[in-house]
Amino acid sequence: MAEIEIGLGKHGRRGYGWDELAIVPSRRTRDPEDVDVSWEIDAYTFPLPIMAAPLDSVSSPETCVALGRLGAVGVLNLEGLWTRYEDPEPVLERLASASDGEESAQALRAAYAEPVRPELIAARIAELRAAGVVSCAALTPQRTAEYADEILKAELDLFVIHGTVVSAEHLSRGVEPLNLKRFVRELEVPVIVGGCASYQAALHLMRTGAAGVVVGVGGRADRVGDVLGVGVPPATAVADARAARMRHLDETGVYVHVIADGGMATGGDVAKAIVCGADAVVLGAPLARAAEAPGRGWTWSMTATHPTLPKGSRVAAPTVGSLEQVLVGPATEAGGKTNLVGALRAAMGLCGYESLKDFQKAELVATR
Questions:
Q1: Topology (CATH level 3) of domain 22-366
Q2: 3-state secondary structure (DSSP) of residue 279
Q3: How far apart are CA 359 and CA 279, in angstroms?
């Protein structure tokens, strides 16, 4: 790809967001009811290519179960409110009722000052397993080794190591960093790891033995770009990870799933993420708009809870319908925020593709 001159001493690539691309219809069309939007990772098959973001405003034990029954994947944050409090509902109510600005920021810091309780990790995973859905939960790399035994004892089905940016090679003079390659290969649970946003980072994470790699840096509630100046437009990040997946497949014969995370607000965005190379997507704010979402009309990320350098904030997520309506409809307006999977099916039908892997072959054009 041609580089752009930033100045006499620096060059950079042009990157693309979802709203700067359009999918090109092909020579044939297909009935949307005849397309297959399921995906597989390790031993698990899911009817919908949707994972919930491990955000407390999105994923409670109850919503994870509801998502699982709809065919998606609920991902519980094991460093969130459900592992800090026996009953987090009063805390969620305080977070929802706080005024914007400093009051909401203080409420977030206070809520997450309570320590994680290991016994609640096991209890929450047990709730998911008892409901009969695939249990999936997330930890940051910093806490993964500390709570690994709790995860194994609770027999979690899928484990996500998730952060704003996760690398396969973290350097530190003060603490022993998590050796991702050794940890992933020794853990008796399929692991999904991320986020990352570049070809090299995605390739290195794939080489750890992970079953899937989450691609993207920050969503609607994150302000990582403003605070740190770090980020890659999401469509470009996913396309780069797609190239890394092909190289890894050529080298090893192992297919690692690419899971897009960040910036998706509509069914059209989900469709573009698949065409860019994603096998599934992580949704935060779109699911926070569901009536059942624990955020009560708000969403926030864990980056907003940092005691000295918050990199996110609480943002409004007005309710648009039930969780079922958000995912599979029916939609009552043309805003694209409900029936996300129906929109994906329609896009695949208009372009004539039968499966998600086929849809990845669709043509894209830059519109800006």
A1: TIM Barrel (3.20.20)
A2: coil
A3: 10
